[in-house]
Amino acid sequence: MGKWRYGVILDAGSSGTRVHIYRWLNSARAQHDASAFELQSLPKLETKKKWTKKINPGVSTFGDHPSDVGPDHLQALLDHALEHIPEKQVEDTPIFLMATAGMRLLEPPKQKALLGEICSYAHKHTKFSLPDCGLHIQVIPGETEGLYGWIAANYLLGGFDAPDKHEHGKGHHTYGFLDMGGASAQIAFAPNATEAAKHANDLKLLRMRTMNGKASDYKVFTTTWLGFGVNQARQRYIQALNDESFTHDAEELLDPCLPSGLRTTLEGVEIEPGTKTGAEPVLLGTGRFDECLRKTYPLLDKDAPCKDQPCLLHGQHVPAIDFEVNHFVGVSEYWHTTHEVFEMARKDKAYDFTTYQRLVKDFCSEEWDDIEVGVASSKWGKKVDAKTAQEVCFKASWLISVLHDGIGIPRVGIEKSAHALSSNGTKDATAIAKDGGFLDPFQAVDKIDGVEVSWTLGKMVMYAAGQIPPASQLDFPVGFGSNIIPEGAVIPADFQEAGSNSNPVPIGDDESFTEVVEELASEAQEHSRGTPGLFLFMLILIMIGYIFRKRERRNRFVRGISSTIRRNRKPGSPRKKNGGFFGAGKFFGRGSGSYERVQEDVEAANEFELGDVEQDDTEASDSSEGSRLGRSSGLATPKVSVSAFESNSYYSDSPVIGLGLNNFPNAMNRSGLVVRTESRERLHTLGVGKPSGGKRSRAGSPTRMKSPLMSPLEEG
Fold first, then answer.
1. 593: alpha, beta or left? (left if phi > 0; alpha if psi -120 to 50)
2. Model-level pTM?
3. Least C-beta-crowded within 10 Å: which of 49, 85, 174, 317?
4. Annotation says 511 is catalytic
5. Residue tagged active-site, from 46, 145, 391, 511
6. What are the CA-CA distances from residue 390 to residues 240, 380, 421 (Å)?
7. What is the pLDDT of residues 22-56, one digit of tens each?
8. Residue 335 sits in a domain of what CATH number?
9. How many domains in the chain?
């Protein structure tokens, strides 16, 4: 097995399914190489652009013929994943398919049949780890999607790992998360301490685990609005226009949210001049953006009865948002609608309401014929086609309405109210908006440090955190559930564990040769356009260095050369005393000895530890229960008491070997035991006390506990 652990997740959305592949270092390797800071951080994931693939349409379109979803839809995605995951690690790689808004709209019987067919097909046609279909193949609620998105955003921004660098005031260091797709919209944030205490029963309890095995708890509010995505909102808008203006004699409905002069069907298909449309009325754009804003406002349903104050949209309860500490990032449609056409002059700066509204008004007041000319000449970029330009006025209006009239994001530079807590209203944030990117009330993002902000990342971060062995056998599992724990219980009744696969992975000396070559070749290809000869030479040197950097590899090479020489040597010819370059010595051969190797190679020392100081798989799994250790998110995410366990704290200023085994002495204290153990192993290897004098096989060494951690999340 290689040093990496992999995970595959399929995001089954309303318009298509996208496969994502993530990888991270296995726990033993990551803990061994981690710095003191990294030990107190979440595991680090990697992904690459080429590891992602999307196909259309969405899986929900197979609701009436579920047997076709495998060969016609899933197989292409599974094949893509198998192209990038080492064959030997497929069986240990979990696969998830999580469906969102599109599948939520299907009738329950169709959902069940489709999910069952997906699971059955994956079992039959792949060897991916799929132990529990109910956990791995599911339609996730919007609240769960929002929670995963919240994890991803804070993970990439550093809100989890470096709270001191993300201090927003009042002990708050996490960021709010907004997501909008075609069918639904989500919000997730950690309320301030006052609101968290007041609405404790409305929050989700999220439990993570850092690389040193310590638990981290967060209290997060998340909710969803089904029907409030841009496509569903547009359908409701057209219905409202129809109800308001349609008569049996009407042939056209005036639409202020379409560019002036554009004619389309009610479904949004452009109608060319002179085309007959039949009995159904058509939409005629007027390009009046102010009127468009007035007509989209009622779609927020702000007047709906609120049974649990306070509420935002559609009568749904949301704790009051303190914009002094709650700074939001928006993804998906929040990004596309603010950037695909209206690319800001300073796109890395915060969203600015005044600038954005001016750009939208200028665009939407143009004649459609002029807009078409601009699209053809790539005036707004190559990604903007006629369909995007046609829809952007309504989308921008809906976005502004949701952000400012719905959620209450301050209109920076417009409103001058005090900094008091907003009871889901709007207030000024000019004084508290910071120049540094994400400390503003709202910022639309697509990628952070080159990595896409996707809820799938949040799910896989949680999964990988669940693979870290807990620092205490009494530690809680990684996962999430309601913030209500029944009396006598240690986790909520609805707690959903991360589903982490805790099967040990043999580390070996390093990653597989094939894996190294593939990575080096990929990197060389990416950088070799200008100087191919230099990078080819560097690639060869790196490969040679990789082959010979471990003593075992050098010895295997020497043995192969030696056996060849012996076979080719003439009978009676003398042997050279030291074997020349490949003879015994410090670099090659026995002269270096296994004893010295144990002294200078910590990984080797770990291999020679006795089995009776190991934890078994059940002890290392994240299904163990008990009291929590570790840190919480601060005032905004109240901490569970850990006073009873302070004596077991494992934070350290230096890297520690064998993390998660803090009930036993560390490697330094076991040095005598390591040496004695190694000496017996060496005697055994040399044949003392063993008639055959054979070598001890690696399989005979004590089983070590291996469960994954991660390296920095980068997108290649």
1. left
2. 0.71
3. 49
4. no
5. 145
6. 19, 13, 39
7. 999 988 888 888 888 888 899 999 999 999 999 99
8. 3.30.420.150
9. 2
